[in-house]
Specification:
Layout: E1 3-8, E2 35-43, E3 46-55, H1 60-85, E4 103-109, H2 111-122, H3 125-132, H4 142-155, H5 160-170, H6 173-177, H7 186-196, H8 200-215, E5 221-230, E6 254-262, E7 267-274, H9 283-294, E8 300-303, H10 310-318, E9 322-327, H11 336-340, E10 346-349, E11 352-358, E12 365-371, H12 372-402, H13 409-422, H14 424-427, E13 430-436, E14 444-450, H15 452-461, E15 464-469, H16 476-484, H17 487-497, H18 510-536, H19 543-551, E16 554-561, E17 568-575, H20 580-589, E18 596-597, E19 603-604
Parallel strand pairs: 5-8, 8-9
Antiparallel strand pairs: 1-2, 2-3, 4-16, 5-6, 6-7, 9-15, 10-11, 11-12, 12-15, 13-14, 16-17, 17-18, 17-19
Organism: Candidatus Methylophosphatis roskildensis
Pfam families: DDE_Tnp_1 (PF01609)
Protein name: IS1634 family transposase
Length: about 600
């Protein structure tokens, strides 16, 4: 059995093992102390400590916000399902049973899917899909099938086949939805995908509205980035193309996904492009499309340098859009004089300094940024690649000198080309020439030299990057902080690729490919809702640890054979009592775990 304990993250050994009061610990105190909930687990001969959650303490305002959000999320979920699904035992009566024949059956994971259902109802997706896909003659409502797909993607990402044949019957979603495992099969899940896709824009609009209600978000700043995800198997739809693979799978066809999120990483919308689409060609369509759906207002668009082209910048200016965008590193040479000057640089972080430069026409501001950590990293990369090229060229020179027969000059040049391509970070630092030399047995001669001007510029520009913007009211620190928030879009892609397993795609029909991505988008909406929830409750920022811990809360059937009849039995569906760590998480989230579920009445054996 694992052991749980709470340790102070400060150097306070005597508090190890002491559980602080969850909400009252900071009252009357000035020093907010973070805590870490740790589980001791034996792995072979070793006992290691796994962090279950970070327990940051909350001040009075934080407690009020966390309580309000928990009430908003949990209260409505209780109204929708508690009365129909859960049994409080108020009708209990005494009955004699055979203790020697009591048994436990159908143990199923309950906590994570129950939490997923709470999130689904908190976003009012049940109401949305009941309206979009009203129940007809089908035995299982399409709204329920879609919720199964999305909650499954959140809790245990897998294929539709795995959901139908294994995952669903090992979870307690049957008790929450009333859908029997035999009613859920692969083809039904595929048909649900077909019905889901036409409602993509309505879903996005609904989520934007609901996020604003729950978390008081503003949409003045939109972060935009593009990623790719690849296919396994034979895929031939029109959108499956080979292109630049961010997954390092150039052998597979792929699609590109353009995602727009808020400054908090909450998803606003996305579009899908063929896998060979370049990033710069998506900007006009995405910006125009999102503003057509959600309004133009006074939004500021934040994009990385992969989206930048002369045409895109001109279009953004002409149409009056505001932007903060990265700029290709080649643009740095334009500001070489300002970089060399040590005046007007300002430290805005311990390792970051910035300098504002106005464009000649005055309608844009360029922000030169130098990161000390990036200086060290880029210098190490330059030195490493330079050493590799130097070593390989020295070896090639010796080979040419020692050769006793003519060498193919074209082959030698191709070898040098491949060497420079593999070490492109330092390729510009060398001047290499191959000339004919009839006096030597090899028939050729190689010479090389270092380029001092390249080395000087590399040392000057290491750790530098440049931003451009037409926002005039913000300070240099606000502009830099805004651009750095692009990490929220990058984090969204990481979550979808790792925690939600958007890749690889196995579908072959274009509609189902797009529907698969929409399911992942909905699962990410649940993920971010949980992240906001746990963050406001002082539980860190990693939903996967919460979901993993909750998945260990099981529901099971206790079967009680009746004493007065050998052919009758009583079946009680119970939720296993949570362990110490799970209890702490439940309390922080403001959740009340049901003890019993509705079960069939006394049955024949």
């Amino acid at each position: 059995m694992p052991t749980y304990w709470v340790a102070g993250l400060a150097d306070d050994v005597e508090n190890a093992g002491h559980v602080p009061a969850l909400y009252d610990a900071t009252q009357g105190r000035q020093d907010a102390r973070p805590w870490r909930l740790v589980r001791s687990v034996r792995r072979g001969r070793k006992v290691i400590q796994e962090t279950v959650a970070q327990l940051g303490e909350l001040d009075a305002e934080g407690r009020a916000r966390a309580t309000s959000l928990a009430r908003e999320i949990c209260g409505r979920a209780a109204e929708r399902s508690q009365g129909a699904l859960f049994d409080d035992g108020s009708t209990a009566e005494a009955i004699k049973v055979r203790l020697d024949a009591v048994r436990l059956e159908r143990s199923r994971s309950f906590g994570s899917v129950w939490l997923g259902r709470q999130l689904w109802q908190a976003l009012r997706l049940d109401e949305l899909f009941e309206a979009l896909l009203p129940r007809g003659r089908e035995s299982v409502a399409w709204a329920d099938v879609i919720s199964i797909l999305v909650i499954g993607r959140l809790c245990e990402p897998s294929s539709e086949l795995h959901v139908a044949e294994q995952w669903y019957r090992t979870s307690a979603l049957e008790d929450l939805l009333g859908v029997a495992p035999q009613q859920l099969y692969e083809e039904r899940l595929y048909r649900a995908l077909d019905r889901l896709l036409p409602h993509k824009e309505a879903i996005e609009a609904h989520l934007v509205k609901r996020f604003g209600e729950l978390f008081d978000l503003d949409y003045d700043l939109l972060l935009y980035d593009v990623t790719s995800t690849y296919f396994e198997g034979v895929a031939d739809p029109a959108i499956a193309k080979r292109g630049y693979s961010r997954d390092h799978r150039p052998d597979c066809v792929q699609v590109n996904i353009a995602l727009v999120v808020t400054r908090d990483g909450m998803p606003l919308g996305y579009e899908i492009f063929p896998g060979n689409t370049t990033d710069v060609t998506t900007v006009e369509q995405i910006v125009s499309g999102m503003e057509a759906r959600f309004g133009k207002a006074n939004r500021v668009w934040v994009m990385d340098r992969g989206m930048v082209s002369r045409e895109n910048v001109a279009w953004l200016k002409e149409t009056g859009r505001r932007y903060v965008i990265g700029t290709p590193k080649a643009e740095l040479k334009r500001w070489a004089k300002q970089i060399e000057e040590r005046t007007d640089w300002r430290h805005i972080r311990d390792d970051v300094e910035v300098k504002l430069c106005r464009s000649p026409d005055g309608d844009e501001t360029f922000v030169l940024c130098r990161s000390a950590s990036r200086v060290e990293k880029e210098r190490a990369m330059h030195d490493r690649f330079k050493a590799r090229i130097d070593t390989a060229l020295a070896s090639l020179e010796r080979r040419i000198e020692k050769s006793k027969k003519p060498l193919d000059r074209g082959l030698i040049e191709r070898q040098i080309g491949r060497l420079l391509e593999r070490n492109s970070r330092a390729a510009g630092g060398f001047t290499i020439s191959i000339t004919d030399d009839a006096a030597h047995a090899s028939g050729i001669r190689m010479s090389r030299a270092y380029r001092a001007d390249w080395t000087d510029w590399a040392r000057l520009s290491e750790g530098l990057y440049i931003l451009r913007t037409n926002v005039t009211q913000w300070s240099d620190e606000e502009l830099w902080t805004t651009y750095i928030q692009l990490t929220e879009a990058e984090a969204a892609f990481r979550v979808q690729k790792s925690d939600l397993a958007i890749r690889p795609i196995w579908h072959h029909k274009e509609g189902r490919i797009k529907a698969h991505i929409l399911v992942c988008f909905l699962a990410y909406a649940l993920w971010k809702t949980l992240q906001q929830w746990q963050s406001r409750a002082g539980l860190g920022h990693c939903p996967r640890t919460i979901l993993t811990e909750f998945a260990r809360i099981h529901a099971a059937d206790i079967v009680l054979p009746l004493a007065h009849s050998s052919k009758r039995e009583l079946r009680i569906r119970c939720v296993v009592r949570p362990e110490r760590a799970q209890t702490i998480l439940l309390e922080r989230l403001g959740l009340s775990l049901p003890q019993r579920l509705k079960a069939p009445p006394t049955t024949q054996m």
